[in-house]
């Protein structure tokens, strides 16, 4: 007996139901809520660890490395769990995870930014425990959320739109986090209270937005495993390693997500110690994220004209040009913000298309191996993104330690050079590496994808006809 589609919301088997604008916005809002929680760790937690908690830079970087590797393993486990769910109820296959993790995720986010009265060793253990707990709960929430697109629609155009709405939501969450967080921190009497106040506001808002998203999205094509069928994890991952487009996407995301997150983590240091004005962080965030929204808006148009692969590579070229130009010519706040806008504009092409390309990889994997595993595909992809996040947290900590960074003090020329290299050279070079890998190894064009979908539909239609014929023969006998 094969997999069968579940239609918990009363979707008929006639003409496929088109997604309403309200649902697309609701899906995008889900990533606003996610990023209110996730981005706080990516942007501010390293600085909180070094400047408020008092951890050595290298030790703080190691917290990110080990915690993110743990997260990556959690993603794999959650993806397998989701794919093997049985007896799916009216809430759906993926949606319940969003609902039930919203409040615990908000609470652990707040706890991660507390400054307990422990020794340095005790604080280091506290950092490990809280951030690993955050990562585990975030995996249980985010892997099903990201796996939902193939279950919401089979229309490639609608999938691209959902990916764009999701990226717009991610960017809006990042924009608000960048613009709004530090002013709240700086408004308090000390950093400990400021961080706790700011993170509490963002965590509560993030949980509420996730619940709103859950209430306004639907699953139409969730694949439920029959009671007697359980896919072995070994079989799932053997199938993954035959999915070449997915493997290429995983590799380039090691580059791009690491580059993006290093920029997020280091920009606070750059503004405070290189430009000597931490108050420009909100302005930089406002203008650069504004350019990201422009990029997200034109990605569907460019993808239709150029194809997703060419648009992805164009974004990397713009990103690299912005960062390398900033390294050479950004000597004040105005030029820094201008080049940051260019780099973030280019990165928006990459980040917008990632989710659409992963959805394409689900169909490619099903066509190649006969196994459809949204959760495993998505979790394998996010495994590499978590590994890149681990690198992005570890590398700045190690580099800051190597160049002699001293918290809350004037920095040496060596430290300044290290911060500038992390901010511009590291992401610029990795953007160029992404272009090379995509050009040489990514072969799933938009036209080829359409052929694969048509062949899959033909297979399923033939299987349905054969099943109907068998049932008719059984009745006649």
TrEMBL record:
InterPro entries: MFS_2, MFS_trans_sf, Na/Gal_symport
This protein's UniProt keywords: Membrane, Transmembrane, Transmembrane helix
Transmembrane segments: 94-113, 125-151, 172-189, 195-215, 246-270, 282-303, 324-345, 390-410, 422-442
PANTHER family hit by this protein: 2,3-DIHYDROXYPROPANE-1-SULFONATE EXPORTER-RELATED, MAJOR FACILITATOR SUPERFAMILY DOMAIN-CONTAINING PROTEIN
Protein name as catalogued: MFS transporter
């Amino acid at each position: 007996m094969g997999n069968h589609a579940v239609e918990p919301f009363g979707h008929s088997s006639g003409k496929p139901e088109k997604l309403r604008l309200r649902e697309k916005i609701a899906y995008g809002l889900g990533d606003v809520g996610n990023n209110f929680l996730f981005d706080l760790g990516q942007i501010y937690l390293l600085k909180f660890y070094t400047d408020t908690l008092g951890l050595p830079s290298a030790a703080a970087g190691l917290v990110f490395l080990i915690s993110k590797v743990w997260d990556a393993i959690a993603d794999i486990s959650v993806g397998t769990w989701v794919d093997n769910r049985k007896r799916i109820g009216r809430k759906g296959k993926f949606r319940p995870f969003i609902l039930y993790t919203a409040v615990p995720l908000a609470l652990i986010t707040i706890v991660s930014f507390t400054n307990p009265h422990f020794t340095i060793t005790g604080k280091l253990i506290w950092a490990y425990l809280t951030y690993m707990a955050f990562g585990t709960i975030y995996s249980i929430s985010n892997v099903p959320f990201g796996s939902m697109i193939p279950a919401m629609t089979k229309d490639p155009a609608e999938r691209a739109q959902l990916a764009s709405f999701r990226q717009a939501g991610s960017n809006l969450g990042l924009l608000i986090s960048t613009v709004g967080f530090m002013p709240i921190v700086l408004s308090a009497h000390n950093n400990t209270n400021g961080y706790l106040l700011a993170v509490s506001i963002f965590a509560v808002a993030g949980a509420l937005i996730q619940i709103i998203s859950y209430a306004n999205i639907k699953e139409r094509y969730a694949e439920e495993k029959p009671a007697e069928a359980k896919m072995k994890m070994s079989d799932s991952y053997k199938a993954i390693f035959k999915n070449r487009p997915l493997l290429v996407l995983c590799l380039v995301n090691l580059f791009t997500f690491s580059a993006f997150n290093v920029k997020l983590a280091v920009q606070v240091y750059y503004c405070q110690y290189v430009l000597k004005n931490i108050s420009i962080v909100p302005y930089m965030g406002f203008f650069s994220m504004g350019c990201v929204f422009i990029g997200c808006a034109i990605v569907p148009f460019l993808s239709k004209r150029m194809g997703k692969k060419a648009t992805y590579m164009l974004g990397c070229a713009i990103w690299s040009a912005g960062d390398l130009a900033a390294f050479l010519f950004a000597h004040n706040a105005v030029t820094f913000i201008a080049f940051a806008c260019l780099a973030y504009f280019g990165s928006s092409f990459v980040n917008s298309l990632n989710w659409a390309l992963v959805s394409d990889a689900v169909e490619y994997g099903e066509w190649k191996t006969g196994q459809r595993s949204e959760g495993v595909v998505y979790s394998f992809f996010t495994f590499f993104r978590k590994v890149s996040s681990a690198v992005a947290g570890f590398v700045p900590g190690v580099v800051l330690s190597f160049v002699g960074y001293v918290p809350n003090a004037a920095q040496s020329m060596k430290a300044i050079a290290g911060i500038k290299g992390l901010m511009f050279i590291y992401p610029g070079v990795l953007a160029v590496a992404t272009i090379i890998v995509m050009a040489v190894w990514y072969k799933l064009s938009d036209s080829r994808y359409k052929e694969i979908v048509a062949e899959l539909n033909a297979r399923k239609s033939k299987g349905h006809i054969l099943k109907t014929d068998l049932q008719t023969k059984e009745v006649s006998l």
